[in-house]
Design a protein that fits this description.
2,3-Dihydroxybiphenyl 1,2-Dioxygenase, domain 1, 3 domains, Jelly Rolls, seven-stranded antiparallel sheet, 3 helices, 32 strands, about 45% strand
Length: about 375
């Protein structure tokens, strides 16, 4: 759901009257510069003047317009060429340098997703007076729930939208391994590729954003909050200027990057057994939609306080408390979490959970079907 800041809603110029934009490239002499940009890089000459003693050459190519001008101050020092196959462009070279020192870097037009190895750690994040909120994209407030990002493998953010109304977003998609949105408070209006008309995510609802699915955030209530979890922590967001949403519905079994779209409506979802007795859960359907990659559930006690000792064999285990209290004892850490607090628990470690009778929490695990290995349990 990345809420990216778009261009200003009010244009400062009449862009319809602008034909193109040029990047200045200064050079000492025009001829060797032309030999490089035209002869080696494949740009074409659109204009050159004056004819008897050229001082300026206008070039275009690869979606870029250049202005070569000997003796000009400043100018670009680095240019990027986006390539389908970097190794095939310049006989294996990944960069070229013009006679005047302009560095031309050859990079992938469609960069591959990088998956760093997971470095799990125990992370407790509290939403109290010491919590740190920063102003992020589109004026949203972000609270980082896993500052170390598990070595770059995961990111978890608590996001607040202070002002309601239209959101300055645009149709885009992400290159991700996994990404989900949980609506904590208020509502957010969204639209997704192949999923029909825009719909509201309300408190308790969950969306799985499969890799590459196009989507857009349209508007929100004032004070809306979401919890967003993604992997890897750093991933590319790509705008799609060609697709208009909503578009024609796709069949439910349609696959985006190996996963199916999933929307969990908390209001209509049933409660069923969880991994441990005296708990119940709503299953978001994300485990089925990701073919077991991830599991997302809303878990609660049934009016009885519960204590149990368990361990997960997981790559990622995350709890976000929605109401009530959750005590967690693991290694040398013994803490009590309240509403809007969260914890990331390393796999393979025994921990004791003490849940209040009114506990409700969000659980996210990778993989989705990891078994809770109970060592002892009871109620109190």
């Amino acid at each position: 759901m990345s809420l990216e800041e778009n261009t200003s809603p009010t244009e400062r110029i009449d862009s319809r009257r602008v034909k193109n934009a040029q990047v200045l490239v200064a050079c000492e002499a025009l001829t060797p510069a032309l030999d490089f940009f035209v002869g080696e890089l494949g740009f074409r000459v659109d204009a050159i003047f004056p004819a008897d003693d050229p001082k300026v050459a206008m070039l275009s190519g690869h979606g870029l317009h250049l202005r070569l001008q000997p003796g000009a101050d400043g100018g670009a020092k680095v240019l990027y060429l986006l390539c389908d196959d970097v190794a095939a462009v310049a006989r294996g070279a990944t960069s070229l340098t013009s006679p005047d020192g302009v560095l031309v870097k050859l990079i992938a037009a469609d960069p591959a997703m990088t998956l760093p190895p997971t470095r799990q750690e125990l992370v407790v994040s509290r939403n109290d007076g010491g919590s740190h909120w920063v102003v992020g994209r589109a004026g949203l407030r972000y609270r980082d729930l896993i500052p170390g990002r598990h070595g770059g493998a995961f990111i978890a953010s608590h996001i607040r939208i202070l002002e309601g109304g239209p959101v300055p977003d645009y149709v885009h998609f992400h290159k991700v391994r996994f990404q989900m949105i949980f609506c904590r408070k208020g509502w957010v209006k969204v639209v997704y590729e192949g999923q029909g008309e825009p719909f509201l995510m309300q408190a308790g609802d969950v969306v799985l954003q499969p890799p590459t699915i196009r989507h857009r955030v349209l508007e929100s209530s004032a004070g809306a909050e979401v919890v967003e979890i993604g992997a890897p922590a750093e991933h590319i967001t790509i705008a799609d200027h060609e697709m208009t949403l909503p578009n024609a519905p796709l069949p439910p079994e349609h696959v985006f990057g190996g996963q199916r779209f999933a929307f969990h409506s908390a209001q209509s979802a049933p409660w069923g057994p969880w991994r441990a007795e005296r708990f119940v859960a709503q299953d978001s359907g994300i485990e089925a939609a990701t073919d077991g990659l991830a599991g997302v559930r809303i878990v609660k006690t049934q009016g009885v306080a519960v204590s149990l000792t368990h361990r997960y064999d997981t790559e990622f285990c995350f709890y976000f408390v929605l109401r009530g209290r959750l005590g967690v004892a693991i290694d040398d850490t013994d803490c009590t979490l309240e509403a809007d607090d969260s914890i990331s628990i390393p796999g393979g470690k025994a921990c004791t959970l003490t849940a209040s009778s009114d506990l409700e929490m969000l659980e996210v695990t990778l993989p989705g079907s990891s078994e809770m290995l109970r060592e002892a349990s009871g109620s109190g």
